[in-house]
Specification:
Number of strands: 12
Order of helices and strands: HHHHEHEHEHEEHEHEHEHEEHEE
Shape: elongated
CATH architecture of the largest domain: 3-Layer(aba) Sandwich
Strand order of the largest sheet: 2-1-3-4-5-11
Largest sheet: 6 strands, parallel
CATH superfamily of the largest domain: Response regulator
CATH class of the largest domain: Alpha Beta
Oligomer: single chain
Number of helices: 12
Length: 337
């Protein structure tokens, strides 16, 4: 019986890519490992040659040679929360343009889970870490300090970040919304709110400022996470059943505000003549909704870009002029009140 001995094909090499691209293997290596140091036209030529040859870069070998993994670990509490999506996408796009890849992890709102997740991530040797929020366990802070990797915290504000920070003050947003209610003459606000830490910070800022303005909320409904439109509608129905005299609903997110608007309109309530509704976040539907939703805008895309810029400066040994960046916010009056 004749023995079959098919010729085994060898995997394409970096030298094959160099030959197809018409450049040196060293230039190919630089284009793969440090694309920001190579002309864009050359990087494009290398990428085209990789597609043509079917070459698979050895990321591990590249990281050993440069002591860089080109991975940035990003930790968020939820991915089914539209509030974080734009920031994550912008961060990913900014990192990708610089030759880095994002490793995304979801931890919920428990500090213990976050600490365990970050410890696992560090075993992958990421070049940097982005954390959502500023409230972390002592164990997590200790692990990060020992790891000696650049860290950017987002979506919050503190004068004492772990390393760098890009965020805003939730308390100040709450206070500004209270001022807005007073400016519009609302006297009987009702609150529809989730109980996550950042939302509660806004709520505390709102309540403290309302007390100073001698305005007392007449109703407060807590909504379970995630902040779904249906839950906003249910909360509004519950609130109006017991407090029909409420003149404005302040919601901890635009999604809850949209649900509240639907519930109010289903009862024939005129917006904003009989009831105003205010959200938070300026999500993509807020301006297009009917009626459009009055809300607080956060530049979520810019937050992702700035976080990436902070990391890149630190990774390339450049001076970070301002390690704490306050994004601020904008109050947006619209048709809902």
């Amino acid at each position: 019986m004749k023995q079959r001995n098919p010729e085994r094909k060898t995997a394409p090499t970096l030298e094959d890519v160099a030959r197809v691209a018409g450049i040196s293997p060293m230039t190919v290596s630089r284009a793969l490992n440090s694309p920001e140091q190579v002309r864009p036209a050359t990087v494009a030529k290398v990428k085209s040659a990789i597609v043509a040859t079917g070459y698979i870069p050895n990321a591990q070998a590249g990281s050993l040679a440069s002591n860089r993994s080109r991975l940035i670990a990003v930790v968020v509490p939820q991915i089914n929360n539209n509030m974080f999506v734009d920031t994550i996408q912008s961060l990913n796009d900014s990192l990708s343009a610089r030759g880095y890849h994002m490793l995304l992890c979801v931890t919920g709102y428990e500090t213990e889970t976050e600490a365990e997740t970050v410890a696992t991530l560090l075993s992958r040797r990421p070049d940097g870490i982005v954390l959502t929020g500023i409230h972390h366990s002592a164990q997590l802070k200790k692990v990060l300090l020992q790891a000696n990797v650049p860290v950017v915290e987002i979506w919050d504000m503190t004068p004492t970040p772990i390393d760098m920070l890009v965020g805003f003050s939730h308390e100040k947003i709450g206070a500004r919304v209270a001022e807005y209610l007073a400016e519009r003459g609302y006297k009987k606000p009702g609150l529809i709110w989730t109980d996550d830490r950042r939302a509660l910070q806004r709520k505390q800022g709102l309540q403290d400022a309302l007390m100073t303005l001698d305005i007392k909320p007449i109703a407060d409904v807590t909504v379970q996470l995630p902040a779904l439109m249906a839950r906003g509608r249910e909360a509004c129905t519950q609130l109006l059943d017991h407090h029909p005299d409420v003149d404005v609903l302040v919601c901890s997110s635009d999604t809850l505000a949209q649900g509240a608007l639907m519930a109010a309109q289903s009862r024939g309530i005129h917006i904003p003549q009989q009831l105003a509704v205010i959200g938070f976040g300026d999500l993509d539907f807020a301006a297009a909704n009917f009626p459009s939703i009055s809300t607080v805008r956060i530049d979520r895309q810019r937050m992702g870009e700035l976080a990436a810029e902070q990391l890149m400066k630190r990774l390339h040994n450049q001076m970070v002029e301002n390690p704490i960046i306050d994004m601020g916010f904008t109050m947006l009056p619209r048709d809902s009140g």
